[in-house]
Amino acid sequence: MQTAWFSKPVAVSVGVTGSIHHLSNTQQAIDLLTTHWRDAGSPKHRSALRACQRATSGDVAPDVARAALVEAAREAHILIE
């Protein structure tokens, strides 16, 4: 497995304090999706996690995973645009 880098970081607000995280690669995204996700288990969350995992194994382009992550973050109301 390898870390797949996004063409542009994804900014999200996490936790009670709303600290801002800039996710630059699939490993950072997987960590957030598996440990601190507000709507864990939703279809978009599962899709983003699966896409990030597939990007780390080279099955999909990193920006496909990024797009799925953006959609999941938007659904969870944590995306900073």
Task: Describe what is shown at a glance.
With 81 residues, this protein is of the alpha+beta class. The protein is built from three helices and two strands; from the N terminus they run ββααα. Strand 1 (5-14) and strand 2 form a beta hairpin.
What's the helix and strand layout?
Layout: E1 5-14, E2 19-25, H1 26-35, H2 43-56, H3 62-75
Antiparallel strand pairs: 1-2
Pfam families: DUF982
Protein name: DUF982 domain-containing protein
Organism: Mesorhizobium ciceri biovar biserrulae (strain HAMBI 2942 / LMG 23838 / WSM1271)
Structural class: alpha+beta
Sheet having the most strands: 2 strands, antiparallel
Compressed to H and E, one letter per element, the order equals: EEHHH
Q: What would you report as the Rg, rounded to the nearest angstrom? A: 11 Å
How far is it from the N-terminal to the C-terminal residue, by CA?
Answer: 30 Å
Label the overall shape: globular
Protein name: DUF982 domain-containing protein
Organism: Mesorhizobium ciceri biovar biserrulae (strain HAMBI 2942 / LMG 23838 / WSM1271)
Pfam family, one: DUF982
InterPro entries: DUF982
Provide an overview of this structure.
With 81 residues, the protein is an alpha+beta fold. It has one domain. The chain contains 3 helices and 2 strands, in the order E-E-H-H-H. It has helices at residues 26-35, 43-56, 62-75; strands spanning 5-14, 19-25. Helix 1 (26-35) runs antiparallel to helix 2 and helix 2 runs antiparallel to helix 3. The longest helix has 14 residues, at 43-56. It is globular, with a radius of gyration of 11 Å. It starts with a strand and ends in a 6-residue tail after the last helix. InterPro entries: DUF982. This is DUF982 domain-containing protein.
